[in-house]
Every structure is written in structure tokens, then in C-alpha cells.
Amino acid sequence: MRYFGMLMAVAVVSGAGHAGLAQSADKPDNISVAYSEDGRYFTEDDVPTYNVADDGTIDWPSYSGFRRYHSECHVCHGPEGEGSSYAPALKNSAVDMDYYDFVDIVVNGRKKVNAAENSVMPAFGENPNVMCYLNDIYVYMKARGMDAIPRGRPSAKEAKSDVIREDENACLG
To answer: Looking at residues 9-14, what average pLDDT do you find?
Structure first.
């Protein structure tokens, strides 16, 4: 429940327009694992990140992100976040984009319509198949952007923790 509460708090903050917390010129490390909690990994700034063991085993959230991305996002953004003629490659964006900007765009959508482009990202803030797994999608995209996880279905993954299972059930329930 802690995780779901944290995710919903982020969504509420994003919806309120505070997602533009831009990173400074010396932006924080949004990749390296500083600590883990209940099968999830975080940077020193408490931003979700991925973890890949030396033997290639990936963390559960990255595996879940692979599954959720391919059920909800790949239709527009292409397989494994590689992009398509319809929407940009997310694997590159997730590495450089501020976490809170990512959340804001997914929750609220984004529209860029001008003489040079016509780009519309629908809002997914009401979609539990995205919102309950938003951090998982984010860490999977970061891992793909860093080439820490190769294309295709991950072959080895950590077990899903009881806390992750409880949080998922609470979110979807």
C-alpha cells in the first residue's frame, strides 16, 4: 500500500502541474541504484531505477515494465521502446527525462500541434493497467535506454516480492 500511495501522490502532484521540476545543469544520477526496498530499486533521489545482476537477471519491476509496456505502449512507441513512425522512442527519453516530467506526460497526456509537428500523447491517468505499473514501465524504459536489458523477452528475473504483489492487488482491486 505504501507504494500505491506514493504513486498516487506523484500522480496528484503531476496533475497539479508541479511536474516541471527540471534537473539542473549538473543533473542528478537517475540511473545508479542507491538502495532497494521490497524488491524495488531507487536512486539517491528516491527515483525508481532498474537493477541487472552480473548474470543478466533483471529486477521484477523491469520485467513487469516489459510486460506492461508491450501491452499498453508499444502500439504507438514501437517494440522495446525503439519508436515508430507514429510516436518517438521512449527508451531514449526515459534516460534523460526527469522522472516527474515522465509521470506528468503519462498521467495528463501532451499535445504538440504546430506547423512543424502534430504529436498527441493521450492521458493514461485513469487507466489502471498503466497507472498501477507506471514506475515499472519507467524503469524498463531506462534499462532499455542504457542497453542494460537487450531487446526481446528477458530470460531471467527476480521473484516478485510479497509487498509488490500486495501493492498490485491494492491498486487493481
So the answer is: 46
Which domain covers residue 77, as residue numbers? 2-172
Count how many domains the chain has.
Answer: 1
User: How far from 71 is each of 39, 64, 100, 107, 135, CA to CA, in Å?
Assistant: 22, 11, 23, 17, 15
Q: What is the CA radius of gyration of the chain?
A: 15
Sheet of 35-37, strands arranged across:
35-37, 40-42, 48-49
pTM of the shown model: 0.80
pLDDT one-digit tens code per residue, 21-79: 344 456 668 899 999 999 999 999 999 999 999 999 999 999 999 999 989 887 788 77
Q: Are 69 and 129 in contact (CB under 8 A)?
A: no
Which of 143, 163, 138, 146 shows the shortest CA–CA distance to 11? 138
How far is 90 from 108, CA to CA, in rounded Å?
Answer: 17
